[in-house]
Structure formats: structure tokens, C-alpha cells
Known about the structure:
Order of helices and strands: HEEEHEEEHHHEEEEHHHHHH
Shape: globular
Strand content: 5-15%
Number of strands: 10
Number of helices: 11
CATH class of the largest domain: Alpha Beta
Structural class: alpha+beta
Largest sheet: 6 strands, antiparallel
CATH architecture of the largest domain: Alpha-Beta Complex
Radius of gyration: 21 Å
Helix content: 40-55%
Amino acid sequence: MTGIEVSTPPPPLPRWFGPRASPDDSAVSALIDRVARGAGWADIGGSFNLNVRIDAEPLVVLRIHRPWVTRGRVAGLRRLRERLQRTQVRVARPIRIFGSDLVRVADRWAELEEFIDHVQPPATQDSYVRLFEELGRLHAALKAVWEPSLPEPLDDHRTFGQLRYSIGFTRRRLGPSSEPVVRRMRQLTGELSRLRKDVELPFAPIHGDYRLGNAVELSDGSWITLDLDFVRVRERLYDIAGALSLIRDLPGIATSLNPGAQSGEWLEPRLLLDAYERTAPEPLTPDEHRWLPGALALVPLHWAATAGLVGAGVEEAESAMTAAEAWWSRRSELSS
């Protein structure tokens, strides 16, 4: 050994990890112009898909998917959204494009859906209670209309094996400076995997990315669910933990859902779990309560593990790991 570390180039991103579509792409731009027919348009965001509002009459949204999304997946989601129109849960209605359900553009699938004007509810206790009531209704509606023919989406942390792969990839991508946070990732992954072996969790159709922003309010006070791209059959607690883990500080409230909160009123997780169970098909099981802190820790752990995939750095990975460890440190309280 010379004591000199030989530097190696970071591994390339996987071929399936294609970027979000860009309006600057000539093929994408041509499709937007063809749909708009002279009307104005605007990129209205979306982390994974390009969502373009076309300001025609009526307003529509052109959605261009990431490269990994298959035709069967998009078509299946369209059929699911059509079936959900018959339930109490509101979702955007799919619209045909040039006489077809889908069109191909720049190695991606594109579709149209109705644009529904909405506002994001404020981050208040009442909004979060309503959010979890709506989640229970969504789970009930998905269960009622689900058909097993819908292809699964890309899911890069369904298993602990996938999580370990992501951690290793991030270590290689970010280099030696990431080693301390990688050790923390591997330790927590081991602890979570041991607990997961001891619980049996019910599987059900879930949203996959449920939070304020994907559940929004209409002018009549009703709510609509957006972005069903990650709908799939998985542990239903995944939706619950995902929504809980993303809750930020409420104005004037230090919540038990935020490990860094120090003062103010106390918003118990039980309040939101009760709201979910009021509308859900079944109450949470004892094993779901036992796994809740693990499910909560797994969300930021995933973001830490995939830092090398999404272009984040060591600092972002460390911040996510701090959140994961904070949830896990409160496992006795959260699982009671």
C-alpha cells in the first residue's frame, strides 16, 4: 500500500434514470405547439413528469412521462382514473389526444387530462386532519375499483436489497467524503430490516406519493387527488408514513411529528391516524403500529440513499439521515 488513494471516476447514472422532459427539446416543443394550436401554455411543474397547462378552451394538461414509464403503465393509469370517476374521490379525467389515448414523443409517452383549478391548502392542523381523512377515502376508492392488470411503476426502494444497492451507488458517486454518512445509512438499514422481518403488514392499492400538493382544494371546499403516477399495491402504511414524514412546522405549533420542535402546542400523530381510520376501509393493525417508526425512518433514509442518483451531495444526504435517525430514535413512543 502506498497510502495514496487512486481516484476513479464516479459511475454513470443508470440508463433507466432519464431526465424530466424539457419544453426546449424540439420534439417536445413541436408537440406542445400542435396541442396548443396557437393558445398560450405554461410549465406547471412536476418532479418526474413535464406537466404543461394548455390555455385553450377547455383548459387541459399535457403530461409527458419519464423514459422508464411504459405504455401499459400509462394506459392502465388512464383506465384507473376513469373508474375512479364513479367514486366519491375526485381525480383528473383523461382526455384523448389526436384521436388516441397516448402519443409517442422523444422516446416518451404523452397524454392529455383535464385541468382542474385548485389551491393548495394551508399547512395547518385542520388541513392535515383533512388530508388524512381524504387518504382514507382514497384507499377505500382504490380498493373498490382496483383491477390487477395495472403494471407496476418503477419502485427503487421496494426491498432492502434495492436500498443497499442505492447506498453503494451513492458511495461510489459521491466519493470518500460520503463514507461517514454511508456508514450511518447502512447501520439504520440493518436495524430496519430486522424489525421488518418480525411484522406482517397488509398490502393494498396506495397512492405512493400522498401529501399536501398532491391533495388540493377546489373552490367548493371539496378536495382532489393529483399525480397518481406511483399508484401500486404495496404496504398501505407506506402512504401513511409518507404523508406523516413530510409534515412541516405548523404556524405556532411544535408538533410531535417534527423531531426538531421544542415548544408550542402538541399535535399528536394519533390525531392524524384517527382521522385516517374514520374513512379508511380497515383500522390499522397492531403490526402496522409497531412498524410505523420504521416506515417513517425509511422515507428520509431512501432520500439519503439515492442522493447519488438524484444529483444531491453529501450535505443533503446527511440532512436526510438526521431526519431518519430522529424518527427511529422515537420508536418506543411512536409504536405505542
